[in-house]
Design a protein that fits this description.
The protein is of the alpha+beta class. The protein is built from six helices and 13 strands. The protein is globular.
């Protein structure tokens, strides 16, 4: 994902300040945020409305404000995710339902000392999901889906880095990235403060194959429609269930389009970022300023 689906942890340079709400404070990262994280450069697009997501994922409860369309979602941005939980203010005997919720992209483990520490992770490797202590419990109890129109990846070439937008061949179809979510309790806030709990998420990645592997060696796990409910169902609370589901997910066949390098600047957020371009007509534009 934008050169960033190959590691599990963000760097410490170029991070934005996180306010008490748990979401980024005004002012996004510098213009080439993807460069400040070394090999890491996670970016994706999601322009679906709450109504669209409700229809697509059979949502029963929506929590959080509607987010505007974004063609350049970057680490620490607020994102919409799909999860299965009991309704708010319900008893333990109430059946879980599908929720649409706004969270921060970049997982903060519940054992983290601060919400802005270096433990924020935008990616989680599928290979270690059920065994690594950092993710084992989360994989068993807090799985989610991250809706996306597509994601960006940077291919290294002799001429520089070439930006691609990878999406469903039917460009109107949404993708559902396999994800994990976590809740972090702020010890400095009173229990009645609405920002007491920080909700964050991470996108699960796997080794890329076929065309995707030619662009980058890792890619997000994309959950097909027939496995989405099973992925969200954490009633077994068994990390082995997550691993078994990952093994059932077929390889996704996406269409990669070469796009403008303008996506490398997080200040750019407009529809034409995902529009295909002819690389031959732009011999210099694929090179990122490293």
């Amino acid at each position: 994902m934008g050169g960033g689906f190959d590691v599990e942890r963000t760097g410490t340079r170029g991070q934005v300040a996180i306010g008490k709400s748990g979401l980024p404070s005004p002012g996004r990262p510098g213009p080439h945020y993807c460069d400040t994280l070394g090999d890491m450069c996670g970016r994706f697009a999601n322009v679906a409305s709450a109504a669209d997501l409700t229809d697509e994922f059979d949502v029963g409860e929506t929590i959080g404000d509607e987010l505007p369309p974004s063609w350049n979602i970057a680490p620490t941005d607020p994102v919409r995710v799909i999860m299965q939980r009991r309704p708010r203010d319900s008893g333990s005997d109430t059946a879980p339902m599908i929720q649409l919720r706004t969270v921060q992209w970049g997982l903060v483990p519940n054992w983290s000392r601060t919400r802005t520490g270096p433990a924020k992770m935008i990616n989680t490797r599928s290979e270690s999901l059920a065994t690594k202590p950092t993710f084992k419990t989360t994989a068993a109890r807090r799985r989610c889906l991250v809706p996306a129109l597509g994601y960006y990846e940077w291919q290294r070439t002799d001429q520089g880095k070439v930006a691609h937008f990878l999406h469903h061949p039917d460009s109107s179809q949404l993708l559902a990235f396999a994800g994990l979510y976590e809740l972090w309790r702020d010890p400095d806030l009173p229990d009645d403060n609405p920002n007491k709990w920080l909700w964050t998420c991470s996108i699960i990645t796997q080794p890329a194959a076929d065309v995707l592997g030619h662009i980058h060696d890792r890619c997000p796990v994309i959950v097909p429609a027939h496995l989405r409910h099973a992925w969200l169902d954490c009633s077994s609370e068994d990390p082995a269930t997550a691993q078994q589901l990952l093994e059932q997910i077929p390889e996704a066949h996406l269409q990669p389009d070469v796009v403008s390098p303008d996506v490398g600047n997080v200040r750019n957020n407009r529809p034409d970022l995902i529009a295909p371009i002819d690389p031959a007509q732009h011999p210099d534009q694929e090179r990122l300023q490293l």
